[in-house]
Input
Amino acid sequence: AVTTGGAKDAWPMWGADRRTLYFVRDDHGVENIWARGADGQVRAVTRFTGGRVLWPSISADGRAIVFERDLAIWLLDPASGDAHAVPIALRGASAAPSVEHLRVSDGLNELALSPDGKKVAFLVRGDVFAASAKDGGDAERVTRTTAREQGLAWLPDSRQLLYLSSRAGYAQPFLYDFTTGQETALTNDPRGDVSPRISPDGK
Output
């Protein structure tokens, strides 16, 4: 990058004629693509009034410059100065959440069967998972933290699961509701809470 007259120049690119140098100039926080000809004259190719121009690259024939701007891919015709965002459509991408397949041969412990006998919760390397106790199949990942969860216990309705987590730096009991997919911290005491027990009525 070179600073000239209060403006900062970067990303130099030679045109196909090898006589024109294109570059990005940051002039008081506004970035545009500029060109310097063999005669030394400098001209603005784009005239954006805001935003950043990132990672520009010129085609081998010099007829197009592509760059990133405002989280989109832009295409510039250096001859005319016409620049526009390139519409990108994702095809074949599922709108539903993707399924992550993990094959685990160790680190599985603390199995807890739900009161109705339909679900089983377990820990894999410190994270909580739950699956059908009868049919097996894909397990639902309940937690995804760097902390280690432990102490699995089902509530009587078999729809909520209690466990301890130290993700805040101290032990807290959390309640996960499989109906809503919501997790709730039950306490927030820096001294930590251990060994929670559920009353027979689940209250």
Summary: The two ends are 65 Å apart (CA to CA). The chain has a mean pLDDT of 86. Residues 34 and 127 are 53 Å apart (CA to CA).
